[in-house]
């Protein structure tokens, strides 16, 4: 059974450097005063300061592990986003193709309407030619010698 290191919270990550600095300053001031005032207690206080410093370094190691984990997750998110963007580009291309097809259908519809109008015009011209031909046939019938 492996033990996973505890991931620090955001509050711990943000406040740890401030806590570290405040703790170090406090310990330095306290240690200096104690050394000046009571050399016999100085050894015990230095031991406490070293212990606190060791805990501070442990917190810094935990923060480094947390930052490493966040970096790994962010790289994974970047790869996921790149994949999503690729899919969206494919959808955009498909949408462009659909618009082109729609435009082609509209152009074909306009062509069919134009062709229908041309057929109607041709029918009118044929009717006019038939009417003229009928008139010429009547004129020709009157001029025939009997």
- The rounded distance between the terminal residues' Cα atoms is 128 Å
How many DSSP-defined strands? 0
Total number of helical segments? 2
The percentage helix is over 70%
Integer average pLDDT: 81
The chain-level structural class is mainly alpha
- Which geometry do the CA atoms define? rod-shaped
Give the percentage of residues in beta strands: under 5%
Nearest-angstrom radius of gyration?
A: 47 Å
Written as H for each helix and E for each strand, in order along the chain, the element string is HH
The main sheet comes to:
none
- Taking pLDDT < 50 over at least 5 consecutive residues as the criterion, the unreliable ranges are none
Protein name: t-SNARE coiled-coil homology domain-containing protein
Topology:
Elements: H1 10-37, H2 39-143
Helix pairs in contact: 1-2
Give a description of the structure.
It is a single chain. This protein has helices spanning 10-37, 39-143. Helix content is 91%, strand content 0%. The protein has 146 residues and is mainly α. The longest helix is centred in the middle third of the chain and has 105 residues, at 39-143. The protein is rod-shaped, with a radius of gyration of 47 Å. The model has no long low-confidence stretch (mean pLDDT 81).
Q: What keyword list fits this structure?
A:
t-SNARE coiled-coil homology domain-containing protein; 146 residues
